[in-house]
Structures are given as structure tokens and as C-alpha cells.
Amino acid sequence: MCYFPETLRKYPPVPHIDRACHTDYQLNNDVLIEKGTPVFVNVVHIHYNEEYYPEPEKWRPERMLNMADNDNRDFTFLPFGEGPRFCIGKRYGLMQIRAAMVQMVQKYKFEPAVGEPYQIDSDPYSVLLSPKSGGRVTFVPRSNEKNV
């Protein structure tokens, strides 16, 4: 089971993507987006849209089963952006996360710090994802004994 895509859906590193429209685009009968107009895509809103992700507040990694690294689920999964200007560090970042998690899980168990709330709110004024008032986790060393 892959936990990273669901975590990135729930907590995208960048909450919005900004682009400039490169040609006039007729969105519907009433709205024309003119060339050069800045366009902001609210990634958090897409990731929390119940039409695409039922019960969006719940962390359910099984909803991302069989998802490939390049699957954007018809532009409803955009933690690294998409198209010709997507994050060039996407593959490298995912590789680093996997390698770091393997090293940490081999050596430690993770537990919430005593008195720390389970729900941690994000800072609405931060450009990148960050907790509003910090957060703490207790690293419990694993025993080096092996059961044979």
C-alpha cells in the first residue's frame, strides 16, 4: 500500500499553482480568460473535493491503490503541479522520501508526543505547507534483537 500519494493529497506541499494564460480561452458562455491573465489553481480545494475524493478529511491510503508516480487522476491530483511546468524535483523528492522513510522505520517507531493534538492545522499564511503552531513526534528506538 502506498501512503505517499494520500499524504500528498491531504497535505500538498504547495496549496496553489499560478500560471499565465497563453491564449484566449472561452471557459463557458459568460467567461473569457484573456491571454496573459494570471490563473490560480487551488490545489487544496481540488484535493478536498468530495466529487473526486469521498470523505476528503479522512486519511485513506487505499483510495490511491495501483497509482503510478505519473498518474494525476485526470488533473485531480496535483501535489507537484502538472504539464510542462510541473515540479522538476518530483521524482528526486519522491526517491528521497522513500529512502529516508526506510532508514527511519528500520531504526524507530513513531508515536505522537504526549499532550500533542492529533489534528495539526496548517499555517494559512505560509507559501509552503507548514504547521500553524509546530508539531512534535516521539522517536522510539527499535530493539536490535532479532527473533530467529
Summarize the structure.
It comes from Manduca sexta (Tobacco hawkmoth). By secondary structure, this protein is an alpha+beta fold. The protein has helices at 4-10, 43-47, 90-107, and strands spanning 16-20, 25-26, 32-33, 38-42, 108-112, 137-141.
SSE order? HEEEEHHEE
Overall 3D shape = elongated
Largest sheet: 2 strands, antiparallel
- Separate helix tally: 3
Percent in helix: 10-25%
| Strand line-up in the sheet with most strands | 1-4
Structural class: alpha+beta
Tally the beta strands: 6
Q: How far apart are the first and last residues' alpha carbons, in Å?
A: 27 Å
Q: Which stretches of 5+ consecutive residues score pLDDT under 50? A: none
Mean pLDDT: 86
Strand content: 15-25%
Number of structural units classed as domains: 1
Q: Rounded to an integer, what's the Rg over CA atoms? A: 19 Å
Question: What do you see in this structure?
Answer:
- It contains three helices and six strands.
- Helices cover about 20% and strands about 15% of the residues.
- It is elongated and about 65 Å long.
- It has one domain.
- It is an alpha+beta fold.
- It comes from Manduca sexta (Tobacco hawkmoth).
- Keywords: Heme, Iron, Membrane, Metal-binding, Monooxygenase, Oxidoreductase.
- It catalyses: an organic molecule + reduced [NADPH--hemoprotein reductase] + O2 = an alcohol + oxidized [NADPH--hemoprotein reductase] + H2O + H(+).
- This is unspecific monooxygenase.
